């Protein structure tokens, strides 16, 4: 959803809600920054109508992730084609002002995604502040971390 369209619905849509949608466009999912492996995507427009459904509705799982292994991340590095998820154990945390919860400077996290495979994760802006807030509450080293919608980049050599 384009941000200008999202702005139109942001106060209406709620997490966990089930909605009916009409007057949208179905397109092939060949766009940059894919969030799902599905073949098609729905494109909402300014004419799209979204309405809340009520009654005896099914529960839709909210924890479906698109996890990728190291080799998949390596092949996606720099392509800007998919935004997969990654899970791993935090091994290293570096940055300045780590104990200042409102600081938005970059935090570098070494995330072990397989035995002896640590990838570098950079966290910026608001997300860096949220990470610092969690860090102030608990020492996160050796915690498990799930990161969604990452954009893998290769700066020098492999992702390691």
CATH topology of the largest domain: OB fold (Dihydrolipoamide Acetyltransferase, E2P)
Provide the CATH top-level class of the largest domain: Mainly Beta
What is the mean pLDDT? 81
The best one-word shape is: globular
**Mind describing the biggest β-sheet?**
4 strands, antiparallel
Helix content: 10-25%
Indicate the proportion of strand residues.
25-35%
Number of domains: 2
The beta-strand count equals 8
Rg measurement, Å: 19 Å
Q: Which sequence of SSEs, written as H and E, runs from N to C?
A: HEEEEHEEEHE
Give structural notes:
With 160 residues, this protein is an alpha+beta fold. The protein has helices at 3-9, 70-76, 125-137; strands at residues 19-22, 25-28, 40-43, 49-52, 86-95, 107-114, 117-123, 144-147. The chain is built from 3 helices and 8 strands. The strands form 3 sheets. It has a 4-stranded antiparallel β-sheet with strand order 7-6-5-8. It has a two-stranded antiparallel ribbon with strand order 1-4. It starts with a helix and ends in a 13-residue tail after the last strand. The mean pLDDT is 81. It comes from Eutrema salsugineum. InterPro entries: NA-bd_OB-fold. This is DUF223 domain-containing protein.
Give me a quick take on this structure.
This protein is 17% helix and 28% strand. It has 3 helices and 8 strands, in the order αββββαβββαβ. A 4-stranded antiparallel beta sheet has the order 7-6-5-8.
